[in-house]
Amino acid sequence: MTTNTFLLVLLSLILASVLSYYQYFYKAKNKSKVTLFLALLRFISIFGILLLLINPIISRKTFETIKTPLPIVVDNSSSIVDLKSDIVALELYKQLSENKDLQNKFNVETYGFDTEFESATTFNFKGTQTNLDAVAKSLKSIHKNTIYPTVLITDGNQTEGNDYVYSFDNANKVYPLIVGDTTTFLDLKVNQLNVNKYAFYKNKFPVEVFLQYSGTKNINANFSISQGNSVLTKQTMSFSPSKKSTIVNVLLPADKVGLQIFKASISSKEQEKNTYNNTKNFAVEVIEQKTAIAIVSAISHPDIGALKRAIESNAQRKVTIVKPNEIKSLQEYNVLILYQPTAEFKSVFENNKSAGINTFIITGVNTDFTFLNQQQNNLVFRMSNQKEDYLASFNSQFNLFASEDIGFEQFPPLQNSFGTVTTNNNLSVLLSSKIRNIDTNAPLLAFSENQGKRSAFLLGENSWKWRMQSYLDHQSFEKYDIFISKIIQFLASNDTKKSLVVNHERFYNSGEAIEITAQYFNKNYEFDEKARLTIAVTNKNTKAIKKYDLLKTNNAFKVNLDGLSAGQYTFVVKELNSNTAYNGYFEILDFDIEKQFVNPDVNKLNQLASQTQGKVYYPNQVDELIKSLLENENYKAIQKAIVKKTPLIDWIWLLTLTALSLALEWFIRKYNGLL
Question: Which residues of 371-394 are buried (b: 16+ CB within 10 A; e: fewer)?
Answer without folding.
Answer: ebeebeebbebebeeeebbbbbbb
